[in-house]
Amino acid sequence: MKTVVPKIEANERKWYLIDAEDKVLGRLASQVATILRGKHKPSYSRHLDMGDHIIVVNADKIRITGRKMEKKRYTRYSGYPGGLSVETLDSVMASHPERVFIHAVKGMLPKNRLGRRMIKKLKVYSGSEHQHQAQKPEELPNHLRRI
């Protein structure tokens, strides 16, 4: 029996539209990361980018559980002395709610060039409007909905 190696050209990429309103951040991010990697397809191969494109709308209405709004911190360091900047989840959600969701999904993808290629297939919008009408995004099928 021969080992079947999937061809990336034979992979058909779909566009999915997900409404993030009243969904828990971590649970939705793990579901999106699974679809971006392509683990829902029978032709999944961990060294190839076999995933689909995802559009997430209403990222500003996502649900955060517990006391994460006050306790969770995002840190950046510029490399210079005194260049550490710390923001709480509350302040980031007020200014850029899309970045919170992208950061959560990015942490669940591989930390290499494959993961950097996968995150480019994720489009996040804070409102209900998006500019990807031409791709004809479809709702997630029932077998992919876990939430």
Describe this structure in words.
This protein has five helices and six strands, in the order βαβαββαααββ. It has 147 residues and is of the alpha/beta class. It has a domain at 15-64 and 98-140: Alpha-Beta Complex (Ribosomal Protein L13p, Chain: A). A four-stranded parallel beta sheet has the order 5-2-1-6, covered by helices on one side. Strands 3-4 form a two-stranded antiparallel sheet. Strand 1 (15-19), helix 1 (25-37) and strand 2 (53-57) form a beta-alpha-beta unit. It is globular. The N and C termini lie far apart (38 Å).
Question: What is the topological layout?
Answer:
Blueprint: E1 15-19, H1 25-37, E2 53-57, H2 68-71, E3 73-77, E4 84-88, H3 89-95, H4 97-106, H5 113-119, E5 122-124, E6 138-139
Parallel strand pairs: 1-2, 1-6, 2-5
Antiparallel strand pairs: 3-4
